[in-house]
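Model: You mentioned two targets. I'll fold them one after the other.
Researcher: Yes, keep them separate.
Model: Target one:
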Amino acid sequence: MKYTYYGQSCFLLETSSAKLLFDPFISGNPLAKHIKVEEIAADYILVSHGHGDHVADLVDIAKRTNAKVICMPEIAGWLQKQGVTNIHDMNIGKFKFDFGTVRMVSATHSSSLPDGSYGGNPAGFVLDVDGMQIYFAGDTGLTLDMKLLAELYQLEYAILPIGGNYTMDPDDAVIAAEYVNCDKVIGVHYDSFPVISIDKNFAVESFKRAQKTLLLPAIGETLAL
């Protein structure tokens, strides 16, 4: 499996059978100005919540690729008004797709859409794909609900927000990694705005002290998972 980072909380997972794009916010991110949005391919787009820094490029990419969008019902209703029709709406629970199983899990955050309407509950996802189990927390603060994932899964990777202010910071993310019992973490949701800037060296060392690995790929970089 391959992971390509596009900045903020946007990334692409390439499985053996599908390209899964998450939270597409690229064109509005000055750190991702070298990324050509029009060249990004996707078979599915998974949306954690409705904030602009997660859905800014959603409609354009969904229409261009005809990717199936997996999201909360409220986001699905907003997408339909934008002319997007290939949608699988779900809520906290799990569903088996042709590429693998997706569990939508709760996140401690808020959610509204670009037009100001309610975006439903914020969420994260656990994927069981190609024999690997991966957790994407979405935008969330630290919550005890994460401990349940350690009982349900043996996670290979946890993709966690680490920028603070709106979400967990590196210290909280270390605790989250302990809660979900995962030693390999990929950081997202940092540095895009001044208020979520982090000291990368400090963050990496914080995870190292907890005997965990924090990966911070550059925007546009691809990792083999």
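Model: Target two:
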Amino acid sequence: MFLGRIGRAVRVFLAQTLRPKTLAVLAGLSLLSLALLHAARGIPQYAENLALNMGAELVGAIVIFFAVTPIVRRAQQGRVHEHRRLDYDWYTDRVTGARTLVRVLDTFSGLFSRPVDQRFFRAATALLRRRVPIQVLLMDPDSLAAEQRTEELQGHSDVRLEILRNIRRLEAYRQGLDPELRQHFEVRLYAASASVTIYRWDSRMLVSFLPLGRLSGDTAQLEVSSESPLGTFVGERFDDLWRHGTPIEDHVALHITLMDGTGSRDYVARFVVLDDEHYIADPRIIAHLARHRDGTITARLGKVPSQVYALHIVAEESDVMSDLNANFLAKYERPGAAFIRLVPDHPPTRSDPT
């Protein structure tokens, strides 16, 4: 059993570190070396000459490994290679061989749109099975930053709609993963303006800045090391946005607790945000309100448990109904039948009558 675990570990290591082309070159050089050694068998003092040459080569390899390689590595870390545009297939090829980490930071990305997403998700699944974490940061579609970016693109794209498409595709992929793999695939939404995009695999990354009037993927991409000054700077920006980001599951559904005279009940409901207010569209909650229409019902949200909300059904003739329907359709690709507005209500204090 112990030897079996070692064998599996060796196979995993070789699969992660050696690509088919590398293996082919290594096999060819090995065969050539064996052929040369076989051809030299007849020379005098064959064993002594072989030992002498192999010892000299070993000393040279040690010098290169411990002296020359670090110098070359440091020189490569500071090197910047410029790509004319963001090639998603090229990036997916690099992701396929990743061993430690994959990160994406963008407003929205064609990487998660058909047909490119199929190759990326296949590569992502293989990485997740090797326990390689994947982190994706997209702009919050309901943020002011998304509105500003749409204006900056001057009509080339509706940023909110594009982000919502990405979110639906990413969430569908997440839900299709086994729970054990899903925990290594994280997607969060940021509300601030990042001004930069990152496509990282291991210690390498493509960095670009958001231009006016064009998508970042259509502009130059700088390939740098994550340990270079530029890589360190944008990496810190990613970490900051990640810490304050909203998990994608909190954007897709709202965890809400309804409280009435008989107790409390938890729901996970679809919702939209309009003018910084939450509107829920869930027939179960509508039915709950109907069953307790003679009593007072309040609500608490999972992300802000200290805040109490009153629930108001939005009338069909309300001025906001058309906007609610449009936003719900864009978010979930299906219409909402009825909406409930959550109105913040201050929790009772000690001075309030009981």
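Researcher: Noted. Anything on target two?
Model: The first strand starts at residue 81 and ends at 83.
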